[in-house]
Amino acid sequence: MLVLGSASPARREVLRSAGIDPVVRVSDVDEDAVAAALPAGSAPEVVVVELARAKAESVAAAGDIPADCVLVGCDSMLLVDGVLQGKPRTPEVARARWAEMAGRSADLLTGHCVLRIQDGAVAAVAVDCSSTTVHFAAPDPAELDAYIATGEPLQVAGAFTLDGMGGWFVDRIEGDPSSVIGIGLPLLRRLLGDVGVTVAQLWGHPTR
Fold it and tell me: How does residue 31 score in pLDDT terms, banded at 50, 70 and 90?
């Protein structure tokens, strides 16, 4: 069984579309506190991986998971001009970020952490980061106002989605589209293999 340590409907739908119906458990990690505790100058890839690890470990520590499962934590951030951007949360911040992004490209980083749980304990761990280059369109002011008014960009990394209304403003990507949505299937398959689990073992496993 696969446990997804995330409240993201988009991540859940990526897995469901790929044949896995995950058990969802949400972590209570303070992402800002985790990032602040990392060594100064940590690479962006390290930041998203450690945030993903913190989420997975938080769900594992809470104990409300099957004794035998695979637990996956993820964290996505947009790297623009060397600066990581998470969720804007307010219209003002979202508008400022789009002023930086419009007509340009940036890298969407998604950290992944996979914990193999056996007999209620962590038996194996695998972590890595995927990077996908996103080429943004330049929405006109009315389009951007309307998009921000929907509320969608306020609660997603980088103030855009690929699989939602934000997709209208993405010209193209270089890399894995599922990673941009929040959970990279090619990378997750490799990490599952690293902890001794195949995708075929997870297909069609009933949620309980």
Answer: confident
> Would you state the structure tokens that stand for residue 147, as one six-digit string?
């998009």
- Are the CB atoms for 74 and 46 separated by under 8 Å? no
**Catalytic positions, please?**
75
3-state secondary structure of 61: helix
Structure confidence by residue, pLDDT tens digits, 147-187 = 999 999 999 999 999 999 999 999 999 999 999 999 999 99
What is the distance between the alpha carbons of residues 89 and 91, in angstroms, rounded to a whole number?
7
Q: How many whole angstroms separate alpha carbon 185 and alpha carbon 68?
A: 22
Q: What is the dihedral of CA 188, 191, 196, 201, to 10 degrees?
A: 0
The residue assigned the tokens 């073992």 is 201
Instruction: Give the pLDDT confidence score for residue 208 in this predicted structure.
Output: 47
80 neighbors 106 (Cβ within 8 angstroms): yes
H-helix or E-strand spanning residue 139:
none
Q: How confident is the model at residue 67 (pLDDT cuts 50, 70, 90)?
A: very high
